[in-house]
UniProtKB/TrEMBL annotation:
First and last residues shown, out of full length: 517 to 832 of 832
Species of provenance: Natronosporangium hydrolyticum
Family: Belongs to the PEP-utilizing enzyme family.
Subunit structure: Homodimer. The dihydroxyacetone kinase complex is composed of a homodimer of DhaM, a homodimer of DhaK and the subunit DhaL.
Function, as annotated: Component of the dihydroxyacetone kinase complex, which is responsible for the phosphoenolpyruvate (PEP)-dependent phosphorylation of dihydroxyacetone. DhaM serves as the phosphoryl donor. Is phosphorylated by phosphoenolpyruvate in an EI- and HPr-dependent reaction, and a phosphorelay system on histidine residues finally leads to phosphoryl transfer to DhaL and dihydroxyacetone. General (non sugar-specific) component of the phosphoenolpyruvate-dependent sugar phosphotransferase system (sugar PTS). This major carbohydrate active-transport system catalyzes the phosphorylation of incoming sugar substrates concomitantly with their translocation across the cell membrane. The phosphoryl group from phosphoenolpyruvate (PEP) is transferred to the phosphoryl carrier protein HPr by enzyme I. Phospho-HPr then transfers it to the PTS EIIA domain.
Cellular localization per UniProt: Cytoplasm
Name of the protein in its database record: Phosphocarrier protein HPr
Length: 316
């Protein structure tokens, strides 16, 4: 019986009209990988690699990172592993990566900005990822991208890492960016020639779109990822992405059952959520009829408020 349940969980999530949506898991530790596989995750859509870097005096070595990434890949049964490069700074300080005093850390030296300021640390991470990518599918993802120059700089470091590892570009390697800054959401066409996928981080995208700090209870009511302004940016990303560039969502919105038809209706084809939510999200996808979800999403984008979007979705 357990085997049957596991097979159902592992079956792909197809909409009623037969479009497959990848339902992936967000991982924050090595042990999450087995849980994700058991829950039926098709991939890891976001590995928050920060767990390897926080609470220590020095960065992890290449071989320590390689070991952790291999363990993740094995725990996942060699399903695709989306490794997000180090996303610290701002609210997530690390002693060996000082950012200096910042009045507005969320607008400061964080994510890819901090990694590019310390290229040797990013290069080591890319070397570890490339070593694993020769044996198991790896999707590299850069966080907090705002400009095309950041992506070209990161890709230059990736080329160096590939040279260090030797044996050419790993066959199973894909490259993508997180879209979590409005500037990136507005310019996906400029990034498209450089990437295989984009993954929308609705947690930060909501924070930056509404200028409402995440986790600040005084402005929590403003920071609704179903705000039509956020949906409009998601719509823009889906429209601008050519068919060669997969659009994912890995922010918490992806695990909101009522949001699934809207995201899929806008054109999102991968949802990455906490492992425990994978079966629920797969079930939600199986209820979606694209012929209805596309106009539903188009209508949601035009509504005057998040509250009205939620009312529309509750009545669905
Ligand atoms: C996001 O910003 O939506 C995201 C998935 O990244 P994090 O929550 O780690 O900032
Ligand atoms: Mg983020």
């Amino acid at each position: 019986r357990e085997a049957t349940a596991r097979a159902a969980a592992g079956a792909p999530a197809n909409t009623r009209d037969g479009v497959t949506i990848e339902v992936a898991a967000n991982l924050g530790t090595v042990t999450d990988a087995a849980e994700a596989a058991a829950a039926g995750a098709d991939a890891a859509g976001l590995v928050r690699t920060e767990f390897l870097f926080v609470n220590r005096a020095e960065p992890p070595s290449v071989s320590e990172q390689e070991r952790a990434y291999r363990e993740l890949a094995e725990g996942l049964g060699h399903r695709p592993l989306t490794l997000r490069t180090l996303d610290v700074g701002g609210d997530k300080p690390v002693p060996f990566l000082p950012t200096g005093q910042e009045a507005n850390p969320f607008l400061g030296l964080r994510g890819i900005r901090l990694s590019l300021a310390r290229p040797e640390i990013l290069r080591d991470q890319l070397v570890a990822a490339c070593r694993v990518a020769h044996d198991s599918p790896v999707r590299l993802m850069f966080p907090m991208v705002a400009t095309r120059d950041e992506v070209t700089a990161a890709l230059a470091l990736l080329d160096e890492a590939i040279t260090v590892v030797g044996a050419g570009r790993p066959a199973g390697l894909e490259v993508g960016i997180m879209v979590e800054v409005p500037a990136a959401a507005l310019r996906v066409a400029a990034f498209a020639p450089l990437v295989d996928f984009v993954s929308i981080g609705t947690n930060d995208l909501t924070q930056y779109t509404l200028a409402a700090e995440r986790g600040n209870p005084s402005v929590a009511a403003l920071a609704d990822p179903l705000d039509p302004a956020v949906l409009r940016l998601i719509d823009e990303v889906c429209r601008a992405a050519p068919s060669s560039v997969r659009v994912a969502v890995c922010g918490e919105l992806a695990a909101d059952e009522v949001a699934v038809p809207v995201l899929v209706g806008l054109g999102v084809r991968e949802l990455s959520v906490v492992p425990a939510a994978v079966p629920m999200v797969k079930q939600a996808v199986r209820q979606v009829d694209l012929a209805a979800a596309v106009p539903l999403a188009a209508r949601a984008v035009t509504l005057p408020s998040a509250a009205e979007v939620r009312t529309l979705l509750a009545g669905d």
